[in-house]
Predict the structure.
Amino acid sequence: MKVSFVVPCYCSEATIKNVVAEIQKKMCVLSEYTYEIILVNDFSPDETFEVIKELCDTDDRMIGIDLAKNFGQHAALMAGFQYISGDIVVCLDDDGQTPADEVEKLLYQLEDGYDVVYASYENKQHSPFRNFGSWINSKMAESMLGKPDHLYISSYFAAKRFVIEEMKNYKNPYPYVIGLVLRTSQHICNVTVSHRKREVGHSGYSFRKLFALWINGFTSFSVKPLRIATISGIFVAIAGFIYAVWTIVKKITNPYVVIGWSSTVSIILIIGGMILCVLGMIGEYVGRIYISINNSPQFVIRDLVCNKQKSVKVHHLEEENGIRVR
């Protein structure tokens, strides 16, 4: 069987060589598998793509992809998926924190009948901020996408080819890999691997990017936020009606009670704030529909590097999938 490794890269000129070397070393031991490596540069401001080109020159099993702008990790994965030729796809990070030398744990679980296998970690070495973001992301996936509460989701996972092919059918400009996986199959499990400390640089996920990822997750694959907004509106309306009745009864039973303006202003602010939140949520959905209708690209490939023998297959994939390399 053939394994396709897809690695989204961002500011990893100092680490990507080690990740590739680790994959190559491990796959030499796993003789029952052949492999290829697809490296996707997500518009890194450093020399990451130059390093990728050097790696592609030294190994004919590699493809290097350079995106024309920063589309995000999930879009970079979707770009890499377009060029896979393996029976199994393994996705991992470019910083070396996800152990490529333990990939057989994921592969063997797939052989046991699972469609997708996610790596879980006994001791995560991410920063507290990143761990908090992962926790929020997990809870959001549980409530909005139906993720089982026992399932741990990470960026290191292996999936069978048919799962990836189904994910590739998603053409909208807001891909969310977790949502695409969960809507494709429920034969998913975890396998425990180690997690390393980051040796170079820092995480590319700022609070702004994490927040955008959360928004993307629950607006692209769920209408539950709109339902929550509806229920909240009904609850506030009922609470307002009860308060009005209570005010009237209080005035009737004690005509000398002065009705304060502060409570009125508070209610107006609460209801007004909820209305604005609901309108903003609806606007987010409508805006995404508008951008999708305008055929905003999921990703744009600026350059692609592979050896001459493989370029024939790559050209065939581009024609088959309607991909244009710019």
About this structure: The mean pLDDT is 83. Residues 261-293 form the longest helix (33 residues). The beta strands are 2-9, 34-41, 62-67, 88-91, 116-121, 157-160, 188-193, 301-305.
